[in-house]
Amino acid sequence: MSAAPRPVPTLGNGLLGQLPAGVAAPAYDRAALAPGIAHIGVGAFHRAHQAEFTDDLLGVEFGRWGIIGINVRPPVLADTLGRQDGLYTRLLRENERVEPRVIGSIVRVVDSQDDPAPALGVLASGEIDVISLTITEKGYCHRPASGVLDETAPDIMHDLAHPEAPRSVPGILLRALEQRMATHGRPVTVMSCDNIPSNGAVLKTVVATLAERRGGQLANWIGANVAFPSTMVDRIAPATSEADLAFVESHLGYADRAVVVGEPFRQWVIEQRFAGRFPGWNRVGAGFVDDVEAFEHLKMRILNGAQSTLCYLGVFAGLEYTCDDMADPLLAGFIRRMLVEESLPTLQPVPGVDPLAYVEQSLARLRNTAIRHRNHQIATDGSQKIVQRILNPIRDRLRRGEGIELLSVPVAAWMAYLIRASARFGSAWRVEDPYAARVAGLADRIGHDPKALAGAIIAIDTIFTAELAGSAVFRTMVTERLSGLLSGDPVGYLRAVCAA
Ligand code: CS2
């Protein structure tokens, strides 16, 4: 009779003393760790980035900086981190190399998907000095083209009518700030860590607009007691797959439902604008600066611009991951040319950065075969990404009378992806984007006539500014690219553009 297989233990406090050799563990006493940070949006990126920086900080300078992780949208955290005392494994991967480490900075998780009360209880608490957010671009309920609050967004309309039971993140923040004002009055830093330009200013604008609509003292109190620093965050950390969970179980010998995989590269630049106590993340590699703008443009236009271009071209060419796109010499060659010839010249100098070296480093990161970042994942919510990654550099070039032969390709590719010109590419896909229905509706009404279709999409003024929509060069180039992509042989067209 063979022995029954030994059950695999689950990661949790009880396992911390018995981790396999080679798995790093928190270098501080977790039992003594009290919370000071509340984070909204505990996805892969937060676990691979801010939570790791915080874990580093606690190891060199222990203090009251444990994180309470809050989700106000799916997934539910109770089933994963909640069962593991907030612990999870972070795997850094680069080609063959794997570096596992258990991160301990998240001390508690709170699910507030159906009811804002649990989130509000944490955010309004006087023990919280920093509220950080990774809620994806669309979580800000702003108009991407201008950064102002979209007062027609359904959740915002709801929150304007029912501020005591908010659904949107800006509405939840406003309610929490109101409760802070009414109770202890302690200042707080509210820090966006999403990939939108001037993310702190955008967050401040949407919250302040709601506060003004609300009336009373709240807007003034926020102005005097709340800081909204902008940040630039960077680390490629794709959605965790079943294969990643299986890897931990088979190679490390324990079960972990909250594994996260990231590349070795990481960067964090934070605007020095704090209210009250703030963690010394600058002691562990983050940069505290007076102005983040140059850093965020560099990152969004180069690294993110490349990702958002490759994702569509890759889907059209039948490829699955960014690293597959980069293994295609034509696509890789096109991306390098686009970045060097068109995106890079729009950047202001960035202190301590050689821009060409930054391009090469970004391309090397995208070639990392151990990072399985799906093209469709990056294509998700493209309407919220394209402004800062592609349209702003286009605007800057047009103002200087420069050409946009290459940057017009991702604009048309985004359109072709959204109208699901899938039959033409021999594959089908579901579009996840707040503008999916609107663009599909335009395509149904107009058909696939490139000129009419490009014109109708460019007329969406929450994405395309009047300046861009009014540019004949822009319309002509995008129409030409869209005609090519909607032609009988879109892949052939792409190859011709890439090879040109
Ligand atoms: C990606 C980003 O899905 C996406 O939009 O472009 O998540 C990207 O991987 C990160 O910004 C890298 O820091």
From TrEMBL:
Enzyme class: oxidoreductase
GO MF assignments: fructuronate reductase activity
One annotated GO biological process: mannitol metabolic process
Domain of life: Bacteria
Keywords: NAD, Oxidoreductase
Domain named Mannitol dehydrogenase C-terminal: residues: 291-483
Domain Mannitol dehydrogenase N-terminal, chain residue ranges per copy: 36-281
Name the UniProt record assigns to this protein: Fructuronate reductase
Pfam families per UniProt: Mannitol_dh, Mannitol_dh_C
EC number: 1.1.1.57
Organism: Kaistia hirudinis
SUPFAM superfamilies for the chain: 6-phosphogluconate dehydrogenase C-terminal domain-like, NAD(P)-binding Rossmann-fold domains
